[in-house]
Amino acid sequence: MVGLFQAYPYPSCSWDIIARYGATNPDLPLAFFSDWARVALDESKHFTLLTKRLAEISPSTPYGSLSVNAGLWESARGTFHSLRSRLAIIHLVHEARGLDVNPATVEKFRRTGDQDTVEILQIIHTDEVTHVTAGHRWFSWLCKNEGVDPIQTFREEVRRGWRGDIRGPFNDDDRAKAGMTKDFYTDLKGEMGDASSVAIGYEQAGP
Ligand SMILES: [Fe+2]
User: How many angstroms does the Cα of residue 191 sit away from the middle of ligand 1?
Assistant: First the structure.
């Protein structure tokens, strides 16, 4: 279970969206930058909570000592070319998947009686709903600016930038709180070819 604490690249992803796309999208309002700065600070808080807890429950496996799935970084590299693609794949696929898996992870720790970890994961989950909300907000803003439909455009981005099914079970309630209604993700499959050097997959743990 300590493997769940071993991959946490989300703080860097949040600063990256500001640094990488800010200069090339001069129409972005100030609220875009304040939203992602807030998300980055949340993610830094999560990283601190998780690494501190990991040191307490498993001092023999400090952060970085186990190998992990690199799907998030690979998706980050695969979306360098487009803010719209970055928002769709990182924030509305990977982060939204976190909303699906976090409640089961909380339940596993609750069953072991580890209330301290349960409380940390619940803080993270509550924050993560707001992160997917930010992803949805700015994806919708871009689509409106470009005069395209957000649901159809999201589905096209996923077909282009993801390999395999967008799989459930889904946490429909928390996804809906973030604006991700079922028509965004139901029966959706990525069609990115195997020829790509970018191997995409979900992280083992949610953000
Ligand atoms: Fe997040």
Answer: 25
How far, in Å, is the centroid of ligand 1 from the Cα of 89? Answer: 13
Q: Which residues surround ligand 1, an ion (CB under 5 A)?
A: 10, 128, 131, 207
CA dist., res. 128 & res. 122, Å (int) = 10
71-86 pLDDT tens trace? 888 899 999 999 999 9
CA 164 to chain centre: 17
Domain boundaries, the chain: 14-25+33-57+69-191
Residue type, 202: Y
pLDDT for 177 equals: 98
Do 124 and 102 form a contact (C-beta atoms < 8 A)? yes
From the CA of 87, how far away is ligand 1's center (Å)? 12
Closest CA to 129 of 86, 175, 197, 79: 175
For residue 156, the CA-to-ligand 1 centroid distance in Å is 23
